[in-house]
Amino acid sequence: MKKTVLALAIAATTACAGVAQADVKVGFLGGFTGGIESLTPPIFDGAKLAVQEINDQGGLLDGEKMVMPSGDTTCSDASAASNAADRLVNSEQVTAIVGALCTGATIAAANNAAIPGGVVMVSPASTAPAVTDLDDDDLVFRTVPSDAFQGEQLAKLLLSKGIEDVAVTYVNNDYGQGLDDAFTKTFEAEGGSISANLAHEDNRADYRSEIGKLSSGGSQTLVVLAYADTSGQTILRQAYESGAFTQYAGGDGMVGNALVDAVGADVLEGMIATRPGSPDVPGSDIFNDLAEKADIDPSAVFAAQSYDAAFLLALAIEKNGSADREGLSKALRDVATAPGETILPGEWEKAKKLIGEGKEINYEGASGSAEFDDNGDVPGIVVEMAVEDGKFVTKGAIDE
Fold it and tell me: I need a labelling partner for 397 at 20 to 30 A (CA). Which of 57, 119, 137, 261 fits?
């Protein structure tokens, strides 16, 4: 009997010794299908790059690996976003979430799964002002500035180029409405004229009726605040076919070379757009090098912000001392805020050591400072984009 008990004890000990450390799950919610399906892969790649570096430099906590299960929100379907978030929160049991990307998806995921589950979300792409006003128990953050700023900068950019009369159409959701409100307010306040301003529904095959109304005022410039893979693409194609406009402009949802390929480089040559960008800081240069080595386009819209979101959540988990959800929000603010020793992209081993020694750190990321305000928003810059020789190129930061 004693031999049997001893044998069982040894077997149990041996089995336990062979069991790997549990993974720490940080989910990713993106629009893998729908309006931004061509923009989502490099955003996901940015987050996965951070995960790879963390695992290569010692992993989380006691050597646990960070893994990133993902979910598809479709961008525009609130039910799909809620279901994807519910799976991550309640089935995958993630500690935190990078995402979502589209604002409506972020709001649906937060209200229906993340907030009830006490899960911190950090969106690298949800820019609508509506995110600021969420009753989120300090659980929803973003590494990208609000469209209240981007819309203002787009308006000033067009006016600085002598474009003083435009027609505007925007996708009829939180993203489109927020960006349109900010753009319209600034454009008109600064002396510009808007001949037509029209909301449109996403995912339709024909917008010729709307284009007729938009062109009736005689404006030569059409501003499209929508998504590159759905309504934005169709509207640009049909607007060109109508012959009514000679210049096109858009916001961050329209920035992607897949749009140029789909509509035609000759059609969109000279198109003007804006997107959140990265300031000229050390973190940006380091990220560019890391991304290029990983065969990721560092200029891809929201890739840097996604890297920062994943890296920040890992730092917060390390600071929190466990993979528990409780306390993570406070830890996130701690690692993102001065004072503390500066941590740059790629410096996981350094950060892990400092946290282990009980020292304060301050992450300065690929997209700049992550000093969250009371609403979980960050400062940021907006850059000018233009279509030149068949692709979007970055022209530089827009002066305030």
Answer: 261
Inter-axis angle of helices 282-293 and 303-320, nearest 10: 100
Q: What are residue 62's phi and psi, to 5 degrees?
A: -100, 35
Domains in the chain (CATH in brackets) are 24-146+280-369 (3.40.50.2300), 148-275+382-397 (3.40.50.2300)
What would the pLDDT profile of 117-175 be if each residue is shown by its tens digit?
999 999 999 999 999 999 999 999 999 999 999 999 999 999 999 999 999 999 999 99
Tens digits of per-residue pLDDT, 275-324?
A: 999 888 899 999 999 999 999 999 999 999 999 999 999 999 999 999 99
